[in-house]
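Researcher: I'd like a candidate sequence for this fold, 478 residues long. If you have to choose between options at a position, lean toward the conservative one.
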């Protein structure tokens, strides 16, 4: 049975509705599956007050106890994996097997940060006799978190994990298109015994909520994952109040294929990852710069694999790729294709919306795309790949860097010299060689240039949720 949860606000440990709502649609058939409550200003103020009170309790809770509760919530989520996965597929359309993996990934974020929160060490600095200098890390306060629609469970989990493991409280605004994942997380934490007010969920119009929360002095950090345009706007809002930010923004990841690899193997691996989540991933490999010696073989294999992609309802276990998230994505993708073709690009497969109901877009491959095409300057965020030949690795690196983004980048090579050249030359926060995995719980993740500021994951992931306090202690009054 395809059940979808009742979406409510979660404020101060209590579930509540609202007077205004927005429809939640299933992108596979465009049918309404639920209603999204829109938080009023009074409810936002209640959430701010609840988070302030929750922080007073949680920040003084022992790290080992915080870890225990986070791990308990993660165990509950793992037990509910099928229910959560169905919710994700209903609201986003991604294949059910990918939704199951997303639940596991979200739990891994919680589990890593739960352990890492017990290791927020300070240090003692040597001083003169009778004087001791200490550096301690303390939770920053109440966090305003904003998560995107493309990963409804793992992205909220990552924000919640970082905040709670550091001793902070959080008000999270999940995406209005895909709220169910955050609902399941909040239920799990409630069942795990999280004190009221430590985690709060609010929904509604993004601009209204962000302007209200960020302007409040009780908000001590803004943590956002989403587009570069929105990230810049939120950073400007936060700067007016001297509020620090953690920004994980757009990508447009390049892939450099050197002349010393198996082009067919690299192509199949790349095509499989490109179509994951219908290409709606900030780290999705999109701009492929292939050595001219391998270009035709790589292209043939890539296109062949893309053409075999099974498109359909995500609830079908055999589906490889579901719909894109909403109607606006269809229009944007069509514009990218039309602009590229008008400028001389070759359309090798796909390029238009699938017939019938639902927001399905054909897996698309463009080849020999000119530099002035929109798709080489802006992130398509959909199932479109660009394949261009390059003369050598240096040209590939120059093309890879020829955008304002720098989140993830990839390379295929067996040469240590090539690897070293990529490490030194590619402008990205995350570089993966011979693998297309860019983000793990145990490794820091974030971008450079217009792809954001700060890191999530790894040892570095909790640092933005803390402040540094220096203590100078003289043994006697001087």
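Model: Candidate sequence:
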């Amino acid at each position: 049975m395809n059940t979808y949860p009742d979406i409510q606000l979660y404020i101060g440990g209590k579930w509540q509705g609202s007077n205004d709502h927005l429809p939640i649609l299933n992108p596979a058939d465009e049918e309404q599956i639920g209603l999204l409550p829109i938080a009023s200003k009074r409810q936002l103020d209640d959430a701010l007050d609840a988070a302030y009170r929750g922080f007073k309790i949680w920040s003084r809770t022992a790290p080992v106890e915080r870890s225990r509760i986070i791990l308990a919530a993660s165990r509950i989520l793992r037990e509910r994996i099928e229910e959560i996965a169905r919710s994700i597929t209903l609201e986003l359309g991604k294949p059910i097997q990918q939704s199951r993996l997303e639940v596991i990934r979200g739990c891994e974020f919680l589990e890593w940060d739960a352990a890492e929160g017990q290791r927020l060490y300070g240090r003692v600095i040597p001083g003169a006799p009778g004087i001791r200098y200490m550096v301690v890390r303390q939770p920053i306060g109440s966090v305003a978190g904003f998560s995107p629609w493309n990963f409804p469970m793992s992205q909220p989990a990552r924000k919640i994990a970082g905040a709670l493991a550091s001793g902070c409280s959080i008000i999270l605004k999940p995406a209005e298109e895909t709220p169910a994942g955050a609902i399941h997380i909040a239920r799990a934490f409630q069942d795990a015994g999280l004190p009221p007010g430590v985690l709060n969920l609010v929904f509604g119009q993004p601009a209204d909520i962000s302007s209200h929360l960020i302007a409040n002095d009780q908000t001590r950090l803004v943590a956002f994952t989403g587009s570069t345009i929105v990230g810049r706007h939120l950073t400007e809002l936060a700067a007016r109040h001297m509020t620090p930010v953690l920004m994980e923004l757009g990508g447009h990841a390049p892939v450099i294929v050197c002349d010393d690899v198996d082009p067919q193997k690299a192509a199949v691996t790349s095509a499989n990852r490109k179509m994951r989540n219908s290409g709606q991933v900030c780290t999705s490999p999109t701009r492929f710069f292939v050595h001219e010696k391998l270009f035709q073989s790589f292209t043939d294999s890539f296109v062949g694999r893309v053409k075999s992609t099974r498109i359909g309802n995500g609830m079908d276990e055999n589906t490889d790729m579901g719909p894109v998230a909403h109607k606006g994505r269809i229009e944007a993708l069509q514009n990218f294709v039309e602009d590229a073709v008008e400028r001389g690009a070759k359309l090798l497969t796909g390029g238009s919306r699938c017939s019938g109901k639902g927001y399905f877009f054909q897996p698309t491959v463009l080849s020999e795309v000119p530099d002035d095409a929109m798709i080489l300057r802006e992130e398509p965020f959909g199932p479109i790949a660009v394949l261009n030949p390059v003369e050598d690795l240096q040209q590939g690196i120059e093309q890879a860097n020829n955008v304002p983004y720098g989140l993830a980048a990839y390379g295929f090579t067996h040469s240590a010299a090539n690897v070293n050249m990529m490490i030194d030359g590619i402008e990205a926060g995350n570089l993966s060689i011979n693998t297309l995995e860019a983000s793990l719980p145990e490794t820091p993740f974030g971008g450079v240039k217009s792809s954001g500021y700060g890191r999530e994951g790894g040892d570095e992931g909790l640092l933005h949720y803390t402040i540094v306090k220096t203590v100078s202690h003289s043994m006697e009054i001087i």
